[in-house]
Specification:
single chain, 217 residues, alpha/beta, Spore Coat Polysaccharide Biosynthesis Protein SpsA, Chain A, 7-stranded mixed sheet, 7 strands
Length: 217
């Protein structure tokens, strides 16, 4: 629900998440951290990202969870923080992101979508993303690994999310081609690290308020 208490009440921030079931989250980190360690890190990242967005008080927040997730788990979390919980819909990541953005834009002028893999997005990054949509249809924050950690829109085109090799280093490059081919204006913010594989863990040390101890398997 829109509220004047937010700095940008015309923008919805969406966070994609899934229930932290052991063995089903951060699977590429299981060889390094073990199933329980990977799940613990996922919980920490999720809590950190969600709490940051709440603290920033920029815009209304919606937590958009995978269909197999337990709604009760997230509803309990949302009840004390006053954000909405909805289900992702679509056959692949691209369709789910498109559907979430398109639904948000029925009620808001702008929508910003992020995941829980990038704890490096701060207040200034989100503000830049919202401002970028004043003069562009879309905004992206590319990831160092070739994907992106943030996508925002004031107008969304389904073709931008189709025929993309999700989970590969080609995601942002393929997205740029789709944007050009369909005359979509966009701006790119600074590249960010996301936490997907063992070699990414060292970047957590760069966040002064993120406390993580490498578990012993």
């Amino acid at each position: 629900m829109k509220s004047q208490r937010f700095c940008h009440s015309d923008t919805l921030i969406i966070i994609f998440a899934r229930e932290p079931v052991i063995g089903q989250v951060k699977t590429r980190l299981i060889p390094a951290l073990g199933k329980e360690g990977a799940t613990k890190l996922y919980k920490q990242l999720s809590d950190y990202v969600i709490n940051n967005v709440i603290t920033y008080n920029l815009s209304p927040l919606s937590l958009c969870i995978t269909p197999e997730s337990c709604m009760a788990y997230f509803t309990k979390m949302a009840s004390s923080s006053h954000f909405n919980v909805s289900l992702q819909t679509g056959n692949d990541l691209g369709a789910r992101m498109y559907n979430a953005l398109a639904l948000a834009l029925k009620n808001y002028s702008k929508a910003i979508l992020i995941g829980t893999d990038c704890p490096f997005l701060k207040l200034d990054d989100l503000q830049q993303a919202i401002s970028a949509l004043d003069k562009n249809d879309m905004v992206f924050s590319p990831a160092k690994d070739g994907g992106y950690v943030l996508v925002g829109a004031k107008k969304v085109t389904p073709a931008v999310f189709k025929q993309i090799d999700w989970g590969t280093e080609q995601v942002m490059a393929q997205t740029r081609k789709a944007l050009l081919n369909h005359n979509v204006s966009w701006r790119e913010l600074s590249e960010q690290h996301d936490i997907d594989v063992d070699s990414d863990l060292k970047y957590l040390m760069l966040i002064h308020d993120f406390k993580y101890i490498l578990p012993v398997k």
